[in-house]
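Complex 343.
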Amino acid sequence: MPSCPEFSSLDAIAGWAETLPAFDRASAEAAAARQMTLTKPPGSLGQLEALASFLAGWRETGRPVIDTAQALVFAGNHGVCAQGVNPFPQEVTAQMVANFEAGGAAINQLCGLSGAALTVIALDLDTPTADITEAPAMSEADCLDAMRRGADAVDPNADVLLLGEMGIGNSTISAALCHALFGLDAADWVGPGTGSDAEGRQHKAEVVSRAVARHAGLSPIQVLAALGGREQAAICGAVLAARAARIPVLLDGYICSAAVAPLHAADPALLAHCLVGHLSAEPGHARLLDALGKTAILNFDMALGEGTGAALALNILRGALACHNGMATFAQAGVAGAESAEA
Ligand SMILES: Cc1cc2ncn([C@H]3O[C@H](COP(=O)(O)O)[C@@H](O)[C@H]3O)c2cc1C
Ligand SMILES: O=C(O)c1cccnc1
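Predicted structure with nicotinic acid bound:
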């Protein structure tokens, strides 16, 4: 199995897609051909069929399975909280990590339901990143270190990887990443997060504008270091390590998608193995998915983060593969095919 290249320079990552494993068309075609033989009208399982072929191409087999689903939730703290952009206090990040470890959060319930093994990784919570209105969030070395920690957490034997995050203030950070990478107005990327009202949102947009203006002229992955969070850098590292092991990824909502936006801006092919679990109610997410060229699996008006949308969507992947692997073919079941198909 190819291993992930060394995280030795941020800008080198832009060239990684050429050396990382690619989608295997033959396996995807074998899966699509099997779908045509199963006891249902062609195409009637809709997106479930497309998902089965997607998993086939990345797992390099016409009959993919999900025996092991890994969920990783990364947590980080943010200096930008000093700007008063978040309704909840920063201590909630560590308190929620304790809640994850005790099994009391939404992500614990949804991973339990969908059969994902959850690991929570807190990244230097006592040392928040720098306030992005004043300095780069992370040095290159700090960002590479967080990426490496994310990559090292990936179980190379997993069949699918779910990613999530926890970090008070990171809806502001995510808006800054999107504004820096995709333009528009800062206000187009700012939303309520954990409950900012109209005045709070206006203040968030002003903070995002100032931060992005301060860190102009950077390459996409340098933007991650300048504006992002450690939990977001770790998500990028995990996405790349998963790719090296041919593990498809289920991203979560706005904050998780914003985390990987620098990879997309560096080279969209770096995210070819990633699905998006759900469309967040955070208004920037729909815009961001347009920019990433992705469609979310679910649209449930959720805006929590933690990986909850990814964990819920894992049930859909399981449904796709239950049908793909468990259904009888027309020949096996003695069911007559469509007359046009037999001609
Ligand atoms: C109790 C609680 C649990 C959470 N779980 C995820 N988030 C989510 O909210 C945060 C982002 O919103 P903002 O930028 O407004 O702080 C992130 O930690 C995200 O994971 C939570 C937030 C809270 C308060
Ligand atoms: O969609 C998300 O990731 C999100 C939205 C609001 C708050 N926390 C997370």
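The chain has a mean pLDDT of 97.
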